[in-house]
Amino acid sequence: MLDSEQLEEAQERDGSTAEDRPDECDAAFERDYPAVGFGNGSPILDKKYDEYPSGDDILSPDASGVLETLAEHPLIGSVRDISDELRADVTVVSKALELHDVDRIEPVEDDAQPSESELELPDGTVVDTEQFRTPIYRDARLLEYLYVDCGYSIAEMREFLESERNHGRGAEKPRWTVDNTDIRTELEMVGLLIGDGDDGERDDIRLGGASLSESETSGTDGLTVSTSDF
Questions:
Q1: Which among 91, 187, 85 has a CA at the least distance from the CA of 143?
Q2: pLDDT grade for 29, boundaries at 50, 70 and 90
Q3: Domain match, 29 and 55 both
Q4: Where is this region: Disordered (predicted)?
Q5: Residues 210 and 129 in one domain
Q6: How far is residue 170's CA from residue 37's CA, in Å, rounded to a whole number?
């Protein structure tokens, strides 16, 4: 429950980091996600990079399972991706796929877009992003959770959202981005900051925003948000 005192504290921070916040909120910036590319993030295969087959080793019968696993992985969208992950020549990878009768991966248009189906919150809760407003940084529940519950600054909110939206994407692929000014404006719109963005139309009482409830202690309107709301 966000009471009047908590709201005042949030507004006084003016977008800066909270002094006290849960440890998992800091740990969220240290996540090591699987990513395409040898040595880039965590391995996609369930083994260490130094245990990967190398060079022409992928032509051997033992490498069939490795190629099948990579070809079916959601982060893999092309033969080039497999080549990058195994640090192998594209020609050799193509030959190995044919030799082991593994269906070639044909690039699709959606492969160039960041995954938008799920978001892992700092406490580990995985949320279906269909529950959020579009774009997600406009969702009042998410804004309050990150700014108040997690104690993130505006810059940290941007860093967290961009990291979560882009993990596993190759550097050559389009990135999901948001500006600090956009987040500040939305925080003002929901009343968590005071500024020009607060035009009197409180975003938190619209469809897709956080729920308003009566505070049992102060008798004033309080904003109730928890990960179970998502």
A1: 187
A2: confident
A3: no
A4: 1-49, 194-230
A5: yes
A6: 8
Helix/strand/coil percent split, the chain, to 5? 45, 5, 45
Report the alpha-carbon distance of residue 126 to residue 189 in Å, rounded: 26
Domain range enclosing 221: 4-33+114-229
Q: What distance in Å separates the CA atoms of residue 210 and residue 206, rounded to the nearest whole number?
A: 8
Terminus-to-terminus CA distance in the chain, angstroms? 15
The C-alpha angle 132, 133, 134, rounded to 5 degrees, equals 115
Distances (CA, A) of 214 to 67, 108, 193, 218: 57, 49, 21, 9
Contact 86, 59 (CB under 8 A): no
Q: What angle do CA 60, 41, 36 make, to 5 degrees?
A: 50
Q: Which residues of 5-14 are buried (b: 16+ CB within 10 A; e: fewer)?
A: ebbeebbebe
Query: Which of the two residues, 44 and 228, has the higher pLDDT score?
Result: 44
Evaluate whether 186 touches 146 at the Cβ level (below 8 Å): no
Domain-embedded: residue 206: yes
Residue-wise pLDDT tens digits, 63-120: 999 999 998 887 787 888 888 889 889 889 999 999 999 986 655 444 434 455 788 8
From the list 140, 63, 51, 145, the residue with the least C-alpha distance to 96 is 63
Angle ∠(101,106,109) on CA atoms, nearest 5: 160
Residue 77 lies in a domain: yes
**Weakest mean pLDDT among 74-88, 112-126, 185-199, 200-214:** 200-214
